[in-house]
Write a structure and sequence with these properties.
Elements: E1 7-10, H1 17-29, E2 34-37, H2 51-66, E3 70-72, H3 81-85, E4 94-95, E5 100-102, E6 108-111, E7 114-119, H4 144-152, E8 158-161, H5 169-174, H6 190-210, E9 214-217, E10 224-230, E11 233-239, H7 247-250, E12 251-254
Parallel strand pairs: 1-2, 2-3, 3-5, 7-8, 8-9, 9-11
Antiparallel strand pairs: 1-12, 4-5, 6-7, 10-11
Length: 264
């Protein structure tokens, strides 16, 4: 694949075939060269009744017809043991389908003069409703060891992640992070909220450690743009929505530097 100049970022798809096909159609309509998905793609090859295999097959066919590839970082709602069984190619990526590629945590690549970084993973606040080894996996979170390795690997201007860094003004207000977890108006278990905060703090350490200037993510199911201040300067954080929302909330077209491309 030649180096893309127009990249369509896409939010959480959750194995929703209709939403994924709409994203592929939209990628064609805006002349995108690549789809880059920010986690909760819906990689469930062991799903009941072959639904996960059918999902990948249908998307592969649509991507073939469109002449596109789809790259994704893993989200918390993926069948986590399965990607690790896929061999890592010489390019550092894993082939999850004929035209579908999984980007392991810490994978770096360069487009033009811009270094990009993949940091998939996030904690499931609904863990208490799930079954370990079936629809919840402890490896869904970026560990402290992984975070340290990502930082040690050097700087990256653009990060594509599933979770957000702590401190974005919009999310901090939305998630009531200005008050202690026990005092927030929230229906999730306190332990889940504490884990979620800790993971966002880990993302913040990665952001500062790699000196990122742009951070794209999903997981929080809302489209927003926010500037946050870090020791190395201002960082633009872009959150993408989820399947079932309008395409202008689910997707964002950017160039190889991570700069948004205005709609024409």
């Amino acid at each position: 694949m030649t180096e893309p100049q127009r990249i369509l970022l896409a939010g959480d798809l959750h194995m929703n075939k209709r939403a994924a096909l709409e994203v592929i159609d939209h990628a064609q309509a805006v002349n995108a060269d690549l789809i880059l998905q920010v986690g909760d793609f819906g990689f469930w090859p062991r799903a009941r009744y072959g639904g996960g295999v059918e999902y990948v097959t249908i998307l592969d066919d649509a991507l073939e017809s469109a002449g596109l590839e789809l790259w994704f970082v893993p989200g918390n709602h993926e069948d986590w043991p399965e990607p690790s069984k896929l061999p890592i190619g010489h390019d550092g990526r894993r082939a999850a389908g004929a035209r579908i590629v999984e980007l392991p945590v810490g994978y770096h690549w360069t487009w033009g003069a811009t270094r990009w970084l993949a940091v998939g993973g996030a904690p499931s606040v609904d863990k208490h409703l799930r079954t370990e080894g079936v629809d919840w996996f402890p490896e869904e979170e970026v560990s402290e060891r992984q975070a340290a390795a990502v930082i040690d690997a050097g700087p990256a201007e653009v990060v594509v992640a599933h979770d957000a860094p702590m401190g974005t003004p919009f999310l901090s207000e939305r998630l009531q992070q200005h008050v202690p977890p026990a005092l927030r108006h929230n229906w999730w278990p306190l332990e889940a909220i504490v884990r979620a905060d800790a993971h966002q703090e880990r993302m913040r350490r990665i952001l500062e450690g790699v000196r990122a200037s742009r951070w794209f993510h999903g997981h929080h199911h809302v489209r927003y743009s926010s500037n946050m201040e870090a020791p190395h300067g201002t960082v633009r954080v872009e959150g993408l929505a989820l399947d079932g929302t309008p395409l202008d909330e689910l997707t964002l077209l950017v160039d190889s530097r991570g700069e948004p491309i205005p709609p024409t």
